[in-house]
């Protein structure tokens, strides 16, 4: 028999909803960990009173009852696991795992039984449904009727809000069955009633969520927020976590209370209660209890009289009453030295705090993400500017959180923190590649191509050039303002026939063209000429003779193996160096021998002359081979040139025939109205119809043809005859 049993994908029924998690059974007891909230339910083996196995909607379920009346329900088991669980309960808990089926008759009358914190509606001996009384928020009575109202569950798509029971009257005197029913419900229900005096009261505290100023009254079992408009009663059992976070300005503190289930106001749910304190605000606090009660209840964690900063007093009292640790930021420090990062979430600016076991964002809306529920994180570029980046977190349930507008200086600190916590980074490359991407990201402002900036720079250059041209061309000209009424009088149109009259200089059309752009209201960019495609390099002929080697290379090829044998294990580079040193030494000896040193057969002079002769012979052979190769290649190239010239001549003849034909047709059309053509003034390009110029090429051809058409018919015929 194993000492432990573990089950994954088990669902715990809590307040009408099924929470996914892991169930573990051991000798010490039963432990269930909620996958969503991380909350752990621990049931000691000595507290177990009964175990029931039954068929439910999700397969089979296990219901555990404790000696103090608590009920725990777990669903998602398979039918085959009953024997294993039954044997485990007998061996370690000494309990019989009973099998009970629910009644499915559909009757709506039966018997109500109260067992601990559970209300069971039975038909005969079979239960129809069960209601945990801790889910009841209100119980009201009427004539023969009891109404139960329930806490709304945000995790469930549909929540049961109300159930009414009809209680028939009885013949017993002095006993009202409706009141008896209501008292049984109220004794176990989660109905908050402010009885007695508060332990202490904090006046006019600034609350960010829900917004406003509230008086906080501390009671032994719940927290009462009293405001001008709303009141909230928060049981300490619903407090999940406490956070104490310093503000980035180092002058304020956030105190965050995580709630499950949340407090409600209409359709709004507040999962976090956020209080904002000033560090400079102090308070003297006296508990409404005697010293013996304080010592007995809080065991030294609180005293009757306390004084200090307001945020310290509130957090200290809450820690003692809720009996939970206060989470503070760890060793993370941002670029500015703060323990948080300024960012935006859902279009609202706030602060992101990297903690030791998660992230928390305050304040609108507050978000708490634990490391164990994170699937991966991602660093992304900002969508609006390159001075910031986005930090994305995706949970294992598929929920994605995007914290945007984070200063790029925080990137290194945040990445090191995430890497140290061993979180999966989605866009991580190779180890060396990550550092490179960080450097590129840090200089993104300088490296990023900004099209708008380039355009503005180019327009600025054009303005400077135009200003310089206008000032150089005429010293008397000054910048003119754009006056719509005076435009026709002072400034000539670009394509006007008498545009020369508007020019102050008489240097001709070239000067006028240079000054035109300065008078335009709209600046037109100069188009950059297209780069000419580089001509493809001619391939090397494989049949061409190879160039001859020098005396040194001939000597090296002959002595390579000898050098290797003299220096075993030598590398290629070292071998080349050694050979160069030997050759240099022989060349030096050769020079000395030429200056008058005695020579002989073993003298380096004769030795070097031998390799010089070999190099000279190789050079002569190369020149001879090149002459033979050049004669053959010239004959082939001459054939190719002749064929190319012939082809060009044919193309030229064909083009000439086409030009003659078009010139003849143009001359015929021009003779019909010669006077009209000569009398009309030059038309602007703005009035040229699409029929006359449809493309760039047609314009060019028309201009050429107009020159031919302007000739008299006799000269045209003579021109065509001469062609």
From TrEMBL:
Primary localization class, coarse: nucleus
Task: Return the protein name.
Answer: FACT complex subunit SSRP1
User: Which residue ranges does the record assign to the HMG box domain?
Assistant: 545-630
Q: Name one GO molecular function term.
A: histone binding
Chain intervals with Low complexity compositional bias? 497-507, 664-681, 708-723
Name a single GO cellular component.
Answer: FACT complex
By sequence similarity, the record places it as follows: Belongs to the SSRP1 family.
Q: Does the keyword DNA damage apply?
A: yes
Does the keyword field hold Cytoplasm?
Answer: no
An example GO BP is: DNA replication
Where are the compositionally biased (Basic and acidic residues) regions? 532-544, 586-595, 651-662
Functional summary from the UniProt entry? Component of the FACT complex, a general chromatin factor that acts to reorganize nucleosomes. The FACT complex is involved in multiple processes that require DNA as a template such as mRNA elongation, DNA replication and DNA repair. During transcription elongation the FACT complex acts as a histone chaperone that both destabilizes and restores nucleosomal structure.
Q: Write out the annotated subcellular location.
A: Nucleus, Nucleolus; Nucleus; Chromosome
Alphabetical keyword list: Chromosome, DNA damage, DNA repair, DNA replication, DNA-binding, Nucleus, Transcription, Transcription regulation
Q: What ranges does the record list as Basic residues composition bias?
A: 517-531
Provide ranges: composition bias, Acidic residues.
Answer: 474-496
User: Which Pfam families does its entry note?
Assistant: HMG_box, PH1_SSRP1-like, POB3_N, Rttp106-like_middle, SSrecog, SSRP1_C
Report the superkingdom from the record. Answer: Eukaryota
**Chain residues forming the annotated DNA-binding region:** 545-630
